[in-house]
Specification:
384 residues, alpha/beta, Rossmann fold, 5-stranded parallel sheet, 3-stranded antiparallel sheet, 48% helix
């Protein structure tokens, strides 16, 4: 009986403490709450949409061989510096996965950053925001756009969703369906209620923020690197890329990404039938729900599909790829502007030169030149 009484009293006291803590944390100024978040956790979990970048962060990240500097603004979006967003007459929100975040590249050299710079050079009343984060998919686009429009009430006028073939795989295997509150959880989690509770405590209690700050860092070497590696490594990157561009066409065709399971549904009828078609249909339903939100708020919605190197180098099954593209085009009846970003590589004499000129070698992501070409095509097709 004593043990049961102790357990009961413990949970009563814990419940009271957490309630007071949550209320106190809620009342703190936003700037102070931002500073309380764990400074070492630059990529953080989100209660609403799984994961995000920490607001007002400044850190070195790494993609492949190179480190590059990332800044985020007060909304947690990748940006050219730590800044408070001042909304304008026209506010354009980009969202996507690692292509849109621009992994391996600082903000100014990403296609969003280039579009930002070009639009602001001719217009004073425009703000461009990059809500893209690596490993996002249509499930997260739905949750995050709902959060930004309906909870944060951001005065967005245009939304640009950049989808990729990998989104279909992520929707099928990484994430659970968005629930009635638009909250997304990882597919590995069986007990959704408990996971929501844990994530809520992590994000909304003062005690967790204090503990996370005083806990010894997991990766001390990375902190040391961030202190001493202040120089930009672009020169080293360019030297390495120059050497890698000498590889033969045959070597390119042997690269691992060309056989990645993420895109197997576009090449294998069996994979398409097993999960590809179902996941495409599910992704389209998520995008339809986003269209309902943007239409309700009188927001222009553009959806872009950027051709990835696997599509350029290794032609997919014509019928399967057609199903994917036609599914995206079907959204046009919901007041959606859909564009294939598929011209940016055609200036090259052959597909191998296009790959070596526009993408990181042995990777699927755009390099600086690739981002520049994609930015130009987007500006030509979307009349901002």
């Amino acid at each position: 009986m004593r043990i049961l009484k102790f357990i009961r009293n413990f949970f009563i006291i814990l419940s009271i403490y957490l309630t007071v803590d949550v209320i106190f944390f809620y009342l703190l100024p936003n700037d102070l709450k931002t500073n309380l978040y764990n400074n070492r956790a630059h990529r953080i979990k989100s209660f609403y949409y799984h994961h995000d970048l920490r607001p007002m962060a400044s850190f070195y990240d790494q993609w492949g061989y190179e480190k590059y500097k990332i800044f985020t603004n007060n909304l947690g979006f990748k940006d050219k510096s730590n800044r408070e967003i001042e909304f304008k007459k026209k506010n354009i929100l980009f969202i996507g996965d690692s292509f849109t975040e621009g992994v391996g590249i600082k903000y100014e050299d990403t296609f969003v950053g280039i579009i930002d710079d070009k639009l602001k050079s001719i217009k004073n009343d425009v703000e461009v925001l990059n809500a893209g984060v690596q490993s996002y998919s249509t499930s997260i686009y739905l949750s995050k756009i709902h959060y930004l429009l309906n909870i944060k009430k951001l005065p967005i006028t245009d939304v640009v969703i950049v989808v990729s073939g990998g989104d279909i795989f992520d929707d099928a295997f990484k994430y659970m369906e968005v629930d009635e509150d638009y909250i997304l959880n990882h597919v590995d989690h069986k007990n959704k209620t408990m996971i929501k509770l844990i994530n809520f405590i992590k994000s909304n209690t003062l005690i967790y923020q204090i503990i996370s700050r005083i806990t010894p860092p997991k990766v001390i070497p990375s902190l040391v690197m961030s202190l001493f590696e202040k120089q930009d490594k672009v020169k080293n990157y360019e030297m390495r890329e120059k050497e890698l561009k000498k590889i033969s066409n045959e070597e390119i065709l042997k690269m691992n990404f060309l056989n990645h399971k993420d895109y197997s549904y576009l090449y294998s009828i069996k994979e398409f039938d097993d999960w590809g078609k179902k996941s495409i249909d599910y992704s389209i339903e998520n995008l339809k729900k986003i269209a309902e939100m943007t239409n309700k708020n009188n927001i222009s919605l553009n959806i872009l599909y950027i051709y990835e190197p696997i599509i350029i180098l290794k032609k997919p099954n014509k019928q399967l790829f057609s199903y994917l593209i036609e599914s995206f085009k079907s959204l046009e009846k919901y007041n959606v502007n859909f564009f294939e970003i598929s011209d940016f590589y055609k200036q090259y004499e052959n597909k191998f030169d296009a790959y070596k000129g526009l993408f990181f070698i042995n990777d699927i992501h755009l390099n600086k030149q690739g981002n520049n070409q994609v930015a130009n095509e987007i500006i030509q097709k979307i009349k901002f």
